[in-house]
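Section 5.1 Outputs to date
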Amino acid sequence: SRVRSGALVFYGATGDLAFKKIFPALQRMVKAGVLDAPVIGVARGGSLEELQARARDSIEQHGGGVDPEAFPKLMRLLRYVGGEYGTPATFDTLRREPGDAAPPLHYMATPQALFEVVIAQLGRTGGDTNARLVLETPFGPDLASARRINAILPEFFDHEAIFRIHPYH
């Protein structure tokens, strides 16, 4: 059996999917006692304080309200890496962020056009080593791009480490 992921890294932390779905789910996971690892949001701009405020707004609007015990714990777990996805420095910083934690689970909450860029950057920095990857399907704007993404995935992630999920909008 595989080691439990030591962090959750989600790309697109300031986006719509994170706002409507991910932050409320993270609070529920903390409340249920199943999330106690660092949660690293990655986005192009902003700060940790802005991300924390966005998480609060998200949970108030889409998560049934801030839980007085779970939300502060989530805020202690939440970290932030800002930068462009195509910039190596962003992923160099990200590679150092979890510290000595076990390899992370990477969740792609970005536009699908960025999947290849992020996956290649993870491969460049070794962020794919023993890590897991979650992608929403269908991915790519057309069949050719979906095939291209499917073709590069095994270059960086083991088959058993790739999770393709269907959106539940």
